[in-house]
Amino acid sequence: MLSVAARAGPFAPFVSAAAHAVPGPLRPLAPAAAHRDRKVPLDLKRPLLCRESLSGRAARGGLVASASLNAPAGVRCVHNDVAVPDFSAYRRQDVQDASASSQGSSDSRKGFSYLMTAATGVATAYVAKNVVTQFISSLSASADVLALSKIEIKLSDIPEGKNMAFKWRGKPLFVRHRTQAEISQEAGVDVSQLRDPQHDLDRVKKPEWVILVGVCTHLGCVPIANAGDFGGYYCPCHGSHYDASGRIRKGPAPLNLEVPFYQFIGDDTVVVG
Ligand code: FES
């Protein structure tokens, strides 16, 4: 049997031909007869561990073309018998004819491309808007926290001339039902004489109701209602006097008592926060 090994290009100097005894379909390989009287020296050298020895191939393996009388041909050079699939079902009707110019269908194909681009853009914008909205809303306060941030007060429970204190966002909240005399007195105060000038009507939504955060603007004590030189609030910590509108009139406090955000819900209810 004759085998021919051929290499191409830079491996040309290594082209070699070798004869191998291999079984074929017509002639099986006959085992060699053992000669008992001949001593065959054993090669005790350990074989070189390399790609060829591990895979059992010749030392000059690689691209090999072999031919023999009874060996099947093993090299395939071309693949021109593969059937090309028919993609006609996926192609547009006006470009089915490969010999026709594509200029005629240019407008309709452009229109289709623009339509797809616009639809994809709208869908992408919609998804992006939803993702951003979800992300932003996940950062805002939850419903239970928002519920704690508001307080609803029934005004008919507060008699005229009295001040009631509530707890709101961890701070005291004063709701004062003023008498007509207090309203007239605070409205007549000369604003220019005040340390923190503010007219009484700028601090109330309804003149008979004054709603204040009950924290002294000096160092944060809780003032006492219906006390002090001006009949409003008095902070005993360092002696700050506020009037019935919550404005600082005497003592170390630099600012008026804070007016929180509130809304009247009907005639009898106010929601603070
Ligand atoms: S904390 Fe109110 S006067 Fe100092």
Automatic annotation (TrEMBL):
InterPro entries: bc1_Rieske_TM_sf (IPR037008), Globular_prot_asu/bsu (IPR011070), Rieske_2Fe-2S (IPR017941), Rieske_2Fe-2S_sf (IPR036922), Rieske_Fe-S_prot (IPR014349), Rieske_Fe-S_prot_C (IPR005805), Rieske_TM (IPR004192), Ubiquinol_cyt_c_Rdtase_Fe-S-su (IPR006317)
GO biological process: mitochondrial respiratory chain complex III assembly; respiratory electron transport chain
GO cellular component: mitochondrial inner membrane; respiratory chain complex III
Record's keyword annotation contains RNA-binding: no
Keywords, in A-Z order: 2Fe-2S, Disulfide bond, Electron transport, Iron, Iron-sulfur, Membrane, Metal-binding, Mitochondrion, Respiratory chain, Transmembrane, Transmembrane helix, Transport
Transmembrane helix in keyword set: yes
Protein name (Swiss-Prot/TrEMBL): Cytochrome b-c1 complex subunit Rieske, mitochondrial
Source species of the chain: Taeniopygia guttata (Zebra finch)
Gene: LOC100227575
